[in-house]
Amino acid sequence: MDALMGFDPRRIVKFTALGALFLFLCWQHVQATRIGYQVESTRREARARRSRVADLRLRVDETLAPAALAARAHTKLGMVPASPNSLRSLSADGQADGLLPRLWARLPLVGPLRS
Amino acid sequence: MDLGLRLTVAASLSLAPLLPLGARLAFLQIVRHDNLSTRASGEFARTAQEAAPRADLLDRQGRVLARSIPSWSCFVDKAMVKDPNAFGAKLAPLLGLPESEITHKTRAAVRFAWLKRSLTQQEFSKLAEARIEGLGLVPKSERVYPNGDLARGVLGLVGSEGKGLAGLELSQNQRLSGRARRMDVIRDGQGRTIYKSVSDAGDEPQPLRLTLDRTAQFLAEEALREGGEKGQFKEGVVAIQDPRNGEILAMAAWPPNPLRSPLVQDAFEPGSTFKVVTALAAVDDRVVREGEVFSGEGGKYQLTPGVTITDHEPEGDMTLAQILERSSNIGIAKVADRVGATRFYRLARAFGFGAKTGAPLPGESAGELKPLSDLTKVGLAASSYGYGLAVSPLQMLGAYSAIANGGTLWEPKLLVDGLPPVKVRRVASERAVREVALMLEGVVDRGTASSARIPGYRAAGKTGTARKIDPLTRKYSTSAFTASFVGFLPASAPRWTILVILHEPKGAYYGGLVAAPIFAQLGSRLLALAGLPPDRPAAAALTARR
Predict the structure, then answer these.
(1) CA distance A81 to chain B (A)
(2) Which of B2, B191, B203, B302 could cross-link with B179 by S-S, CB 3.0 to 4.6 Å?
(3) Which CATH topology does B49-78+113-209 take?
(4) Can you name the residues that pair with B181 across neighbouring β-strands?
């Protein structure tokens, strides 16, 4: 066909394919660089968040440290260490006699008193 | 000439000048590729390193004792700072440091200087946003101990480079250290990092679980701290072991020092707590008859010409059980003479005295036990009541645990490593050990350790009071003592062996007066926490047979 001005159509396809491949490689390189920036930025953000999580965990651990708990229990709640003989135990199976022990055993956050 | 040919010629002529460029490109890309590639890598490519956090140290219930958290350090590159004054003024509020200090470091002779280590996340964010030229930020990992000084003598210390310097941090350094993750990155013209690939995935170590119990450790330290802060003694040690398997539940020392673990590293003359070895040898070999009495000689006994043994109280006739209850040096020396040096020495060795226990802590002391050839009449007598030899607190704790559990010496276990506890040996017959354990109950019920009693519970143990050697005169001091108490409870089925050692107590210095009350205080707290029912019958009167 005259419109092709004597060029072989197969050659045109080849050149077009090569051009497309070249453009694809360029695009891929640009994308790789862009994602590379993103990965680095995300990595920094992840590290910052890990640091924040570690910081919060540390505060939890420090708050629950035995010395801190004992100090708060003593100063804020006026609690003192219990001697083993001051513990009064009921049966572990919940078959406690009396109204008060039965009510005590029913409290949701309090386990049965030790026997 | 057709159009196609003409276009080809025109294109060839247009592209002809590009031929030398192509040739040059080929030369650079093919012939000089390696050389140029290396240079380019050197200028743009970097290896970023992400330090692996050091493994956490946990107590037996998984509660954190030591943890690594991400942090940053910042430095100044003096060559990149144009105006040190402006640099200092800008940084001072961000770092919370005096402006003069920053300026001084920036003007120092060396190009590089650390400005601040262990930056918090907030400080780091502010500095990163400020983008100050000449300021560098380096990611680090910081070791923190959320419970403060709790168990620091055992845990130890980590240096600024992240390596263990003392305690378990040192002995388990390899196990706790991870391998850093390495990544290939390149830097663009503005210095921003572009991630390329991971060159080494690194290795993050698993937490290390210890046999220590955080609550028991706290109680032990609290029991020591009360007296230590009041200046009632110079140094003190409290340790708790589970006699059923040798697991160490607490190792406390006063004053707290992360660089030292006196329980393992120190050795001391035990005094009367060592009498149990002599008594056990006698009972095991049946060299003392049931009900047989030994004369207390009224408190003074000439062993050989020039060598006199004294008791703290003048005593009359005593059975072996009473010798322990009254802690009579004269009585036990007579028993030792009956036992003989060889048997005494062998039993002391069987208890592990004079040898390292194998505890996974650095600098363990083996103590010192006189060789058999040195156990003359005088040497044997002195050794029988704990003089002329040195033991580590951990050895003594293990020995009493062996008595508590019926005669098995366990290797002290500090790490939960999935391996079963190591049984070292049986030290004596179960019959003899049970009998001596009953005698030790008598020490608490009727003897020198009455202040170790816990109402409603059976406890057993032995007091010790030893003169210390004056480092100046190299003779026994008349004013410096080591007071101790080692015992176990509940005696019916022992769960805890507790050792208390106080060096140079002020005022009262007998182990029964100063160390035994700490045992009682700690023991009652442990019993309350465990919720163990009382094991002493209402009218308990258990007496030793001998």
Answers:
(1) 7
(2) B203
(3) Penicillin-binding protein 2a (Domain 2) (3.90.1310)
(4) B50
